[in-house]
Amino acid sequence: MNAIEVKSFVKKYGDFEAVRDITFDVKKGEIFAFLGPNGAGKTTTVKVLTGLLKPTSGKASVLGMDVAKEMDGIKKRIGFVPDQPYVYPYLTAFEYMRMIGDIYGVDLSEQKKKIPELLGMFELDDRSGEIIDSFSHGMKQKLVISGVLLHKPEIMFLDEPLVGLDPKSARLVKDIFAKLSKEGTTIFMCTHVLEVAQKLAGRICIINGGKILALDTFENLQKLTSAEADLESVYLKLTAQRQSEE
Question: In 3D, which of 118, 60, 58 has the Cα closest to residue 93?
């Protein structure tokens, strides 16, 4: 069983078709990069897979469960880092972590051990008693990632997870994702940082105008496009080809 399966998925907003009949799967333990320009349909797809939106037609399943019918069961087993770190502004960082732990049923003894460890890892331990409203964007992002790591999800959905992070924190997060993947966690990642996708992802899916342009390993995408050494060249060739066809 794949971690994620999407078949003939369509999402419309009125007459506008944001996602157009896409099909793909993500293997368990895979780092899957979902790339495309602004407005390509990436965030819409992630929102459907995480239960924030419902598909217009087609099917999508996460951990073998239908997103249209079994979202409560799915949400218990996944984590989501959105493109904006939405957190309760008048909780302290420690209170936020405790809340996340309680929501996901993390044992209190485990919370007492893991919360200080995670806050320390992201250099937030000395600010754990301060309200989140006083935090910078990058600090909020690190807190959201810490909260996701606390409950050990089977799949992590990441929508621009490195935005706002300083270089040291970004390197830490990339190392964490690579380690989690080796341990069996599935990572579905949307990012504009193509270097990260090239380095971490087992497979890369490029979407534009709501349609999948290509899905394969980086090496095979290079061969497909006869591109130069990096993913940026592959990406620009594929998206430029799509624009010329329109």
Answer: 118
18-28 confidence digits (pLDDT tens): 999 999 999 99
Domain residue limits, the chain = 4-77+154-245, 88-152
Residue 244's pLDDT band, with cuts at 50, 70 and 90, is: very low
Among all chains, which residue has been given the structure tokens 């217009």? 56
Task: Confirm whether pTM is higher than 0.85.
Answer: yes
CATH superfamily assigned to domain 4-77+154-245: P-loop containing nucleotide triphosphate hydrolases (3.40.50.300)
Cβ-based neighbour number of residue 224 at 10 Å: 13
